[in-house]
Amino acid sequence: MELGNQKILMAGLPEAGKTTFVAALWNYLNDVSTEKAFTVGTLADNDIEYLNSISGKWASYETVGRNLGDLSTVKNIKMNLLRAGGSQVILEVPDIAGEFFRDLFEQRKWPVEYESLLSEITGVVLFIQSIDDNNAPKLIKQSQKLAQTAGEAENSIHDNQENIQQWTHSHTSSQVKLVEFLQFVLYHKADILPLKVSVVISQWDEIQKTTLNYTPEKWLEHYMSLLYQYLVCNNESYHVLSFGVSAQGGSYDENQEELQTKKPIDRIIVQEGGNISNDITKPIVWITG
Q1: What is the pTM of this model?
Q2: What are the pLDDT tens digits along the chain (289 aa)?
Q3: Cα dihedral across residues 117, 124, 135, 204: positive or negative
Q4: The domain that contains 39 carries what CATH number?
Q5: Is the bond preceding 194 in cis, omega lying within 30 degrees of 0?
Q6: 25 φ, ψ to 5°?
Q7: Range of the domain at 128
Q8: Is residue 164 part of a domain?
Q9: How many domains does the chain have?
């Protein structure tokens, strides 16, 4: 059966790897040496300029930032892709600042334009920064133990009240914010369920350096247990598949010489289950399949 047009939202906390992923994806799609599930459709001139800029930086082993000089006015990128048979997939890549998640978590609101965007999506690519210290909750008891280990007197924590930080939203675990975000999405997509979610765990090369030998799903279960349990326990609302992705292929500071021996798209790492490839379209292909 031929699939109709679909619109996919790429979302995640700031610094979760969305921009680098898009830069690598654009380079991959425009590489003519391999057969792909998608071809590039028409784009706005401003979008093409932006995508070419970040893709060029990515291919030149430069860190890809969220804004690029005169292109800092770009807020949302729409990447139009075509599948065999002519159906269209639109990737929505909104430039979401930290204030968005602050307002979402603290005030339970988001902009009207985001409301409109959500009404049209058929799936979500959710990005997680694998080496973010804020993935796990920071408990007061743990902080006290660390202070004692460092040689501080036990009562110094109470004596120096001025050194105790007041709680803010920034202290909240990343997975709590992501669950809150997904709950908002679910509320606005209740008429189109289940919603497909590709979980992209970024900087997967760092996970591969360890001896843990995790699949992306097992990593999510172990290190983001709240988010994992929320998705598993709501399987009537979400269909989920996890991917480990390194859009760079490694650290530019530590591995640039090794990375330069490879063709740009060959340094992309995408792991699904136990299978590893450089096909960065997999999280999108799964949603649209």
Answers
A1: 0.84
A2: 234 578 888 888 888 888 899 999 999 999 988 888 888 888 877 788 889 999 999 998 888 865 433 333 345 788 888 887 778 888 888 766 656 766 777 777 777 777 777 878 888 999 999 888 877 766 655 555 555 555 554 455 455 555 556 767 667 888 988 998 898 888 877 677 789 999 999 999 999 988 778 999 999 999 999 999 999 999 999 999 999 999 988 888 777 778 788 888 999 999 999 999 999 999 999 998 8
A3: negative
A4: 3.40.50.300
A5: yes
A6: -60, -45
A7: 6-137+173-288
A8: no
A9: 1
